[in-house]
Amino acid sequence: MHAIVRNEELFQTALPGGRLLRKRLIPALIGVVLAFIPAGSVGGALAAGADALVGEWLVEDIGGGGVVDRVRMTVTFTGDGKVNGSGGCNRFTGKVKMTGDTLRFGLLATMRMACPPAVMGQEQKFLRTLQGVRSWAVDSDGKLVLRDDGGKPLLLLARVRQSAAITIEVPSTAAVRTVKVDYACGDRIVDATYFNAGEVSLVSLSWTGEFVVAANVLAASGAKYAGGRYIWWTKGKTADLYDLTKGENAEPLACTQT
């Protein structure tokens, strides 16, 4: 210890004011080091991760048990710390916290519509599973894998393709009336959007893996639409969905407004 003190004294003698000079150099050197850190390096992983997740994702599997056929569950990351989506029956919204490859969902607010038991049960399981997510990764197939804190896969999601807009000009029509209605059809939810412009009546129908645009045709009662292989026939708050590929005598899928 004595030798160290003597060496320090010799150093200060050789360089008068050396201690004061050293104290002044330390903050200056820190400033030089920080000046060489590339802009954007701090927090860059978070920004890159947010960009990779932004958009809508379709749930394909929950805990290795698959999902109910034709029930559309989605998660949409907006890129600003917020999230929304559908549990198959009800819409939800909330916040997420992400740092690098870690991901945590906050409390989610949901609507309270009633759907068939199988759909409701899966939705509750899905929302509970989201609360257990702790990390994320995109695999070689472009699928989003959400994992728990032990690395176990909880959810597998596929990116939803961006939709394209179609414009149809209807002559001599003052306005277009648009009405959106959700239907519970067995174990699936069908989203219907009706477009009425004068004598032109169309409906777009969407559910998991399907999108159909159908035109109004003559019917003895109610409103009947035909598009592709499907017939959509509404009567009040109910509707029947016919799949023509199943034969003329096949029973339709009965639907009720939610």
Automatic annotation (TrEMBL):
PANTHER family: HEAT SHOCK PROTEIN HSLJ. InterPro entries: DUF306_Meta_HslJ, HslJ-like_sf, Hsp_HslJ-like, MliC, MliC_sf. The chain crosses the membrane at residues 25-48. Pfam families: META (PF03724), MliC (PF09864). It comes from the Bacteria. Keywords: Lipoprotein, Membrane, Palmitate, Signal, Transmembrane, Transmembrane helix. Residues 54-156 form the DUF306 domain. It comes from Chelatococcus asaccharovorans. This is Membrane-bound inhibitor of C-type lysozyme. Residues 183-247 form the C-type lysozyme inhibitor domain. Coiled coil: none annotated. The keyword Heme does not apply.
